[in-house]
Design a protein that fits this description.
Elements lengths: L3 E6 L1 H5 L3 H10 L3 E9 L2 H7 L1 H7 L4 H9 L3 E8 L5 H9 L12 H5 L4 H6 L8 E3 L3 H12 L2
Antiparallel strand pairs: 1-3, 1-4, 2-3
C-alpha cells in the first residue's frame, strides 16, 4: 500500500477561495486525493490537533490565537497519496516553508501568502499560511484519525 499524508486547508485559504486551486496543484504534482471533507472546526478538535505546538511553543496567547483563527470556520481536510513516492515530503515541498517569508516563490505559500511568522508573533495571533501538512507517518495517523475518525 502506498504511503499517505494528511492535509488541512486552513480558514485563510478557504476565505481566499484557494481550495480548488490547491487541490489542482496537488493533482498536477502527481498526488491523488483518497479522502476529502469540508468541516466546521470545533474547539476540542483544533486544540487536540495543535496540542504539540501549544506545548512546544509555550506562548500564553497561542491557545486563544488558534481559537480566534479556526473556531467555527470551515476547513478542507484531505488524505493524499502518491504511487511509489513519499507524499509527506512531496506535499511539504509543494506548500513551502512554514514561515511564508522563507518559502520558495514557486511554493503555494510563496505564491499566495502575505503573512510572516515575525508579524504574527508581534501581533500575538496565529500565522496565516494556508495549509497544514503532516510531517511524519505518526502525525498522518494521528491527524487522520482525529479529523476523519477511525
Amino acid at each position: 500500500m502506498d504511503q499517505t499524508t494528511f492535509v488541512l486547508i486552513k480558514p485563510d485559504a478557504m476565505k481566499l477561495g484557494l481550495a480548488d486551486m490547491i487541490l489542482e496543484r496537488f493533482r498536477q504534482e502527481g498526488l491523488t486525493v483518497l479522502r476529502s471533507k469540508k468541516v466546521r472546526v470545533e474547539k476540542e478538535k483544533i486544540l487536540t490537533h495543535y496540542e504539540d505546538v501549544l506545548k512546544r511553543l509555550n506562548k500564553d496567547y497561542l491557545m486563544q490565537a488558534i481559537l480566534d483563527e479556526f473556531l467555527d470556520q470551515d476547513v478542507l481536510i484531505l488524505v493524499l497519496t502518491e504511487a511509489n513516492q513519499d507524499p509527506i515530503t512531496h506535499v511539504r515541498t509543494i506548500i513551502g516553508a512554514t514561515d511564508p517569508a522563507k518559502a520558495a516563490p514557486t511554493s503555494l505559500r510563496g505564491q499566495f501568502v502575505h503573512d510572516t511568522l515575525e508579524a504574527s508573533n508581534v501581533e500575538k495571533r496565529w500565522l496565516r499560511n494556508l495549509i497544514h501538512a503532516s510531517d511524519s507517518p505518526e502525525a498522518v495517523k494521528k491527524e487522520t484519525e482525529l479529523w476523519f475518525g477511525r
